[in-house]
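Hi! If you just cloned this repository, the fastest way to understand the data is to look at a raw example. We've pasted two of them here, unedited. The first protein comes first, obviously.
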Amino acid sequence: MTPFILGRRGGSNWFLRILGIRPRKRIDKSKIIEALIVKIDSALNQIRDNIIRLKLRYKGLIERAIKTLLSGGRVKALIYLNEAAEVKKIVKKLGVSEKALEQVKLRLETLESVTDVPQVLGEISGVLLATRDYIKDVMPNIALSLDSLVSEAKRVISETTDVGIGEEEGVYITEDAKKLLKEIENAVEESVSKQLPEIPMSLVTPLLSKGVEVKIKDAGKEQQVKRPKRPVRKLSPEEIDRKVMEYILTHGGFIDVSEVASQLNVDKSEIMASLHRLKEQNKIIF
């Protein structure tokens, strides 16, 4: 009689199937990491596309608000300004989410050993959950993408360890995750404030009554302004006035003539002429 040798007909796996036991499926952890990074990149692209779109939206709202304020439409201008403030909040939340996902991606990319995969997935899942809760009220579609990533992390942890993880257990928002998100939020707040300057409401009322008091910085009328090399588009006086007023309002009543001339690719004399036009219209005081 031929003795039974473990290994024939599938070896131990064949024997376990006879006993009704399903063997644990082997998982290529390096491929898991690659797949997760691909999904994170997809979520990042989604976030970045929304940031670009909303920044353009913010700029358009501010321009409309300035144009309306210059024509005396206070109520409509305030509607534009309030909407711009809401858009800015969403941009900030998206910015925080972007930086958090970049941290998660970096952690996966710098993973030293695939044996650490379950532990690392547990760590990053906490960050993903915190990010999901942070953004779900303004971008539910992105929150769903983060939910999908967390579910994938749970599945992998279950299949690579002896820990069974249910739908509502296994990963948590840790104190470290909360701390990381807070640090990112502070950094993004400063960055967004510089990129999307607001118009202080304290300047709106003076603009519509006696005019905004302006402090002018001028490097000297004889000094030539260095302008960027780009196609020159002749701006109308109305466009220049609007841009000058936007600069003044978003810089707290201050204007650097040389800087604005460089930004608009015009001579300083045109900026000074705009300031005098605005003064004659009782929009500004200097």
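Ok, and the second one:
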Amino acid sequence: MPTFIDLENQRFGRLIVKSLDRIGWWYCLCDCGNTIVTRVSSLRLGLTRSCGCLKNDMVADRSFKHGFSDSARDERSPEYTAWKNAKARCSNPKSARWNHYGGRGIRMCDEWLNSFEEFLSHVGERPSKKHSIDRYPDNDGNYEPGNVRWATPEEQARNRSITRNLTIGGYTMCLAEAAKKFGLNRKKISRRLDRNWSDEEAVGLK
């Protein structure tokens, strides 16, 4: 049986939790005066931070400040470029980086795939010119809420170092996928790679 978590009077973004509506759902008051009933998981994971006014305000503010109001202006923004490039890597086989993304099963969630505004409302404005889009904490995961951040080059490098990728016969896969596919221990493959074996040698193909 799920453990009951008392959220009464706690604040999540613009929401203050007022009372339990039913098991797993809480009645909340938004700073704008509206009310909303939402899941406890959505509050704790940061997926719901307002009655909906926050997303509208963010999109409106960015439209005003950065010209996100139409596609011609969108294409001048780093946020739009990051979204467009990530979408191409996941959904366009002609993309130069398809093999490292869509070719090995990484996708962009439908919510973001169909709407730059939804992507922007979750990810926010790029903090600086040094930041770029990063899949974190799961570097093998999809572009979706909870697994994407703006990261510095140092953060990107640390994240990539967690996962080793191999390219076998033109197909790129992570170390765990390679171990499963070729019936080998991940540590054994990793040790072979550390000794400068080729990817094919590491999985026993040469």
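That's it. A detail worth noticing about the second one: The mean pLDDT is 81.
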